[in-house]
Structure formats: structure tokens, C-alpha cells
Task: structure prediction
Amino acid sequence: MYRSTGSEAEIEEFLGSLETVETADIVVGIASYNNASTINHVIRAVDAGLAKYFPTNRCVIMNSDGGSTDGTPDVVKRATFDRKTIFLSTPGLSPSRITAPYHGIPGKGSAFKLIFESVRALGAKACCVVDADLRSITPEWIELLLVPVLKEGYDFVAPLYSRHKYDGSITNSIIYPMTRALYGKNIRQPIGGEFGLSGKLVSHYLGSKGVWDTDVARFGIDIWMTTEALVGGFKLCQSYLGAKIHDPKDPGAQLGEMFVQVIGSLFSLTEKYHEQWKGIGGEVEEVPTFGFKYYTGLEPVKVDVERMIESFRAGVECFRDEWGRFLVKDVLSEIEAVARKDTRNFYLSNDVWVRIVYEFLLAFHHGKLEREELFRSMLPLYLGRTASFFLDVSDLSNDEAESVIEEGCREFERQKRYLVELW
Result:
């Protein structure tokens, strides 16, 4: 969890200190909280990427820290590399490096807000943000996230990764297929963590009212940024970055608040922009993709399928009555039937899963349950679907598993009419 130690006065003091930098063409933002073990590599990769690909631009590396107690800001300040061993020619301007605590609700979104304020204060033309726990970032990531903005006129650059089939389960089962079905554009990683942004889009984000004290300030920031770019008429693309290797999380053991915040943000945005997505149909549009796709090895992700199935079964017992207030009988009966299956035969099908998601979205829209209760009751169903997917693809390669995810996306698109009709 990101935490905040900065007061409003400290933030004003920080923004005033930017006057020593005066202006910048590029800001690279890194939100951190207790990432001392990984952020040194991230800083060095960013520094090298700016020096190599943007030697004549005025650049700032901005670390927005959530009150780390492990010395993360000190690591940021000390991180160095010998440029003579990396570059055949002497690079140009060295980027400025700033680390500061952010203010606001503890969360990644609040950290990003300080980064965005820095972009505006410095008049930067482009910004990119990268996670502080990355172990696979290379200098080329900085080029791929920023060049489409600076040279091709794009406002929003989403990441495109090679990921292990068990990684990114919330993205694969809900966020990606729903974003694709609702808005008609194939952005594979809507909450990927790394993004390239134009100064114009950053100004749009900062001008949005009433969002920075919601779940957007926590873990909802990525889907909010993507959705705002989609509905705001901004020019979008994606860049292939290779493997994303970071600190993986077992979806059966480490979700909780993140799930509630991400899904809460997704549903709130769907409510806000219903007039836009209801009118979108037909073929999904591919967005331009930059970068050279290549084969890369991926670290295995450990998962506990039994734990997820047990959480699913416990959820059926606990939330059956609540679900009965809005789930149609055949869907509820199918959920109960799946809960009675043993692990070997455990399977929650695509069509039932999509109906579940859309029924929960409709329940949110029509106020069938309190917001927090609704999302927490959805969590065990998500774990059941995730366990089912893991079992289904256990013998498949990562590329073959991707085909299974794509079929799930098409089911969301097929059933969208049902959602529109009942909205």
C-alpha cells in the first residue's frame, strides 16, 4: 500500500522548489512505497533511457514516495551508473532527479497526482510513469513510452507485455475484456502500470473534478487513466515492452482491497460514461502498436488453486442470499452447481462468468446492494473464475492461454447487448 506523509504546506514547498529546474521537456514519474530492493535498477534504467534516446531534451526523474521506511528515497538519490561502460558516445544533458512525499489519500493515484502536478508546473511536453518494483525494465522502455508522444503525436501509450499465463488475473478476467467490449478498442493492458502521456492529457487528468478523493487515488488510477483517454477523444496506441517481471502476487492470497478499488473504479466509470459505451458496437478496433515483438522467457507465478476454490465455496455459503437479490435464478443455480464440484472437475464457463459480471454491474447501476458489500461479495466469484481458468490452461503454453483469454473477450462482446437492454 502506498502511504502519504506530506502535508499541503510541504507539497506547496515542493512545487516551489521546482523553480530551480524551471522547465522540462520530459518527466518520468515513479511512485514508490518501500521499494528499496528494486528501485535502484528502475532509476538506473530510466536514467540510461533518457540519456540514450533523449540526449538533448531537458528531463526530470520524479519519485513520488508514500513515506517509505526502508530508505527508498535515499536509494533514489544515490543511484548511479558509469555512462562510459554503457554508451559508445558521450550522452548529452543529465536528467534532474527529484524525490518528494505526496499528499492525500494513501495510494498510487495520489502519488501520480503529484507527478502530474510536476508535469504541469514544469510545462513538460510528455510524461511516462513506471512501477518501482520492476525487475525487467530496460532503457528501451523509456523510448517506447515517450517517442510515440513526442514524435508521432499520441496522447496515451499503453504498455503491451509478455506475461506469464497466471499473472495479471484481474486484467485477464475482467478489466481487459470489459474495456474492450464497452469502448470497442483493443488495449491489452488497461491497468498495466507503465504509461506514456502527453502534456495535454496530463492537464485533462488534473482538471477532472471529484476523483482524487475516490478509489482513483488508490489502486483505481490505471483504469481511470485509460478510460479517460478512451472517452476523451485522445489519440491512443500501445508499445511492446517485452516481459514484465515484478513482484508477483498470488490472486488467492493477496487481493482484498486492490480488487475492491479496481472494480469499484471500473464500475463507477462505466456508470459515468454509459451514454458513450452504449452506442459502441461492431468490430473491435485494433490500436497502433509500436515496438518489436520478440520471444522472452517468463518467471513462473506460484498460485494456490485449492485456496481459491475454498474461498469460492465459502463465498457461495456466505453471500447466496445477497446474490439472490439480483442474480437471475439460472446463473445462481449454476454457481451453486460449480461449488459442489471437486477440484478435478471444477469449471466456471465463459458464458456464466460474463453473465455474473454484467449482473453485478447492473446491480451496481440499480443500487441493489451497498457498494462495498457488492464488491466484496464479488471477490469469491472472481477467485472461482480465476481458479477455473488456471485449471483450464495448466497444460497450455502462455501463447495458447492467450487464445483462451481472447475467447473470453469475445463472450463479453457477444453479451453486451444484454447489458445495454437492461441498463
